[in-house]
Amino acid sequence: MMAKNTVVLWYDKEAEAAARFYTKTFPESAMGRVVRAPGDYPSGQEGDVLTVEFTVAGIPCMGLNGGPEFTPSEAFSFQIATEDQEETDRYWNAIVGNGGQESACGWCKDRWGVSWQITPRALTDALSAGGEEARRAFDAMMEMQKIDVATIEAARRG
Fold first, then answer.
1. Domains along the chain?
2. Angle of helix 131-141 relative to helix 149-157, nearest 10 degrees?
3. Tell me, what's the pLDDT at 1?
4. Whole-angstrom distance, CA of residue 109 vs CA of residue 112
5. Angle 138-147-7 (CA atoms, 0-180°, nearest 5)?
6. What is the pTM of this model?
7. Can you tell me whether residue 120 is helix, strand or coil?
8. Residues of the chain with pLDDT under 50
């Protein structure tokens, strides 16, 4: 059954491949219904995958193979909170290592152009502390691509 509120992600033709990657990579994820087009449409043919329902890290989503007209932007991202460096590395490396690309401050893009923030709790805790502690952690983060937990913790301590 489809959720009442669902995030819809637009893909050219690879919604199913993206959904399978996400559900394999993140916990609390699962594949749902795959719907095939009942007829030809501007960017596809009858029988092509039209939509894919899936859950990624507990969030209900739908992948729509809408064609090349629209592409993802950084205005939308998934934020995945991690407990430690090992978990941070695992998700970052999965996304970047599967044809994605690194960005700044814990952001990366998957091979389909969807942005991800891989954010250790050590960083969010440091930023929430406020004052000089938060400023030092923020300044350290601004120099990073993938977040280094040990560096954030050291900056937090001063």
1. 1-69 (3.10.180.10), 72-158 (3.10.180.10)
2. 150
3. 63
4. 8
5. 95
6. 0.94
7. strand
8. none
- Residues contacting 75, CB < 8 A, separation 6+: none
The one-letter amino acid at 109: K
Write down the residue that tokens 């978990």 correspond to.
87
Structure tokens at 152: 């954030």
Copy the structure tokens of residue 28.
């609390």
pLDDT at 43: 83
Tell me the per-residue pLDDT of 27-73, one tens digit each, with 9 for 90 and over: 999 999 999 999 998 888 999 999 999 999 999 999 999 999 999 99
Sheet of strand 30-36, all strands in order from the earlier edge strand to the far edge: 7-11, 59-65, 49-56, 30-36
* Tokens, residue 25: 């990579």
